Amino acid sequence: MALQSPFFGKREPETLTPRASSPTPTQPRTGLHPATVGNPAPTAASSTATAPAPSSQPPTLDAVAPERREGSSASKLTVGPHIRLKGVEITDCDTLFVEGMVEATMDSRVMEIAEPGSFKGSAEIDVAEIHGQFEGTLTVRQRLVIHPTGRVSGTVRYGKITIAEGGQLSGDIGLLGAAAARVGALPAPANG
Question: How far is residue 151 CA from its own chain's centroid?
């Protein structure tokens, strides 16, 4: 039998049962799993609660996480598009990937600035790949690659450099210590 509400002719559902009389067993809360959201709770019609077969549910985060941790020991920071990271010091970062805008000081192994991205500040890097824009002090211990859309300006020191056609490099440019000593301490000519 349906109960009719006095408000605007709306009806309440017919299958309402009082909470106090529900004989369902209580289970400990372990957090919500995406597969369980929206699934109906056991009703009085089911006399025993059984756990679903392990193959019928996707693996839980706890089961997947150890595999991910073992495969990725390097730390990576990604600054996505339309994100501005300003006035920070980035440390203990193996790889920095920039699609947004970063104003920072950092010491890292690898830095990649995507075409829409920009970095302003000071960076000491092993390998840098610039598709976007870098402005400031850049020390690249091993290899600096400036792609056709890349723009680098400021004080730049590098071990090896590759500039693709269209890439721009301007400012105070020179080889790092040991590399500069091999070529007679002459700075490399600026392209751009």
Answer: 24
Question: What CA–CA distance (Å, rounded) separates 56 from 50?
Answer: 13
* Backbone phi and psi for residue 61, each to the nearest 5 degrees, phi listed first: -60, -40
Q: For residue 119, what are the CA distances in angstroms to 59, 68, 96, 115, 149?
A: 39, 29, 11, 11, 14
Q: Are strands 133-146 and 76-79 parallel, antiparallel or unpaired?
A: unpaired
CA distances from 18 to 11, 15, 23, 25, 156 (A): 17, 10, 11, 15, 73
**Residue among 90, 89, 63, 68 nearest 77 (CA):** 90
Q: Do the beta carbons of residue 77 and residue 90 sit within 8 Å? A: yes
> How many other β-carbons are positioned within 10 Å of the β-carbon of residue 185?
10
Q: What is the pLDDT of residues 5-26, one digit of tens each?
A: 555 555 555 555 555 544 444 5
Residue 87 predicted with pLDDT over 80: yes
Count other C-beta atoms under 10 Å from residue 98's C-beta.
Answer: 27
Q: In sequence order, what are the beta bridge partners of 104?
A: 88, 121
pTM of the model: 0.57
